[in-house]
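User: We ran a pulldown and think these components assemble together. Before we commit to crystallization trials, I'd like a predicted model of the whole complex to look at. Sequences follow.
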Amino acid sequence: MKFYDCSTAPSPRRARIALAEKGLLDDIEVVEVNLREGEQRKPEFAAVNPYLTVPVLELDDGRRIASSTGIFHFLEAAIPEPPLMGRTPAEKGLVGDLEWRIEMDGFMAIGECLRNTAKGMAGRALTGRHGYEQIPELGARGRLRIERFFEDFDALVGGKRFLAGDDFTIADITALVTVDFAKWVKVGLPEDAANAQRWYETVSARPSAAR
Amino acid sequence: MKFYDCSTAPSPRRARIALAEKGLLDDIEVVEVNLREGEQRKPEFAAVNPYLTVPVLELDDGRRIASSTGIFHFLEAAIPEPPLMGRTPAEKGLVGDLEWRIEMDGFMAIGECLRNTAKGMAGRALTGRHGYEQIPELGARGRLRIERFFEDFDALVGGKRFLAGDDFTIADITALVTVDFAKWVKVGLPEDAANAQRWYETVSARPSAAR
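Assistant: Here's a predicted model for the assembly, 422 residues in total across the polymer chains.
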């Protein structure tokens, strides 16, 4: 397998953490795609992923999975232990639900803020081959959304060790990457959010978080 | 189990089709939530789902799954046959990837267009308990995105029976709901897109599509 990554970017970090948690990251070829230099828009990479994004996981038969979501599904089926997506049907449903919610309301909101406000993103307010102009109001809305997401995050953690309970799951992965990504737009978990802060320390201390 | 639905809305239709495909829809209690009358914003429903959206699947132990994505995960684990999310690890990864892409670039783009342009959505450009003003430029961008998504759709189908190959999957469910939802903003699959039109006829003819 071959993993197309960008070590400084939030999106591929979600997949990279999952690969590390499944014990795969040291056994596969990792190809660094330099997003800051626009390498994802070069023909070589467009031939790998026409959506011009990382992560991409290329399987041994050449087929490619070009989203963190898809890579999570593949890894969970290929290497069931440790489970990252729940054990029982109810847990699987609840973990899938939670991870989706965190991606939509947290991770995507930051992208919306960053891509619609950063000077370097002018004309590229969305990923992909089509150029889209920035919409400043959307940038401001994204910031408001991520602030609200973080206000609610303490209650989402509650007294649990991890977001879905006793097991570390893809919900924790996406939330951890969301919290670190939010630093790019200078938004963070409230200092006095004790549950959220404890959770963040716990998940950040895992070896996979440093990969 | 109890299924909170809205028979006229696109989001719960994704979950409803999956419930029908798994043979469950006639055996569970269905609660109609009238979104047009704003029933989702009443305290009774806010107690069920604080995100104020349908679908919600309430399990027998009272736990609730409040997204199509979460409901797909639950159903696939609870009732493995017929599989809607792939059989092998590679298939599971590719189906998950495809469904995510269709949701992001298709389904979400229509929501973005509709909610930022329809008069009745003023002040509610996003679902949930926070009011957000409409951003007309975002409405226009959503329309452009869905047009481009449909331009590429014929190639996505190609010569395959279903989007992921021989099996009907959640990728077909989300794509079918996307095509029908797009009628609300008067965008459709190109008439001359032969593969796309053939696929649409095939999936629309399934009994689950009429539920």
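The radius of gyration of chain B is 17 Å. That may be worth checking against your pulldown data before setting up trials.

User: Thanks, that helps.
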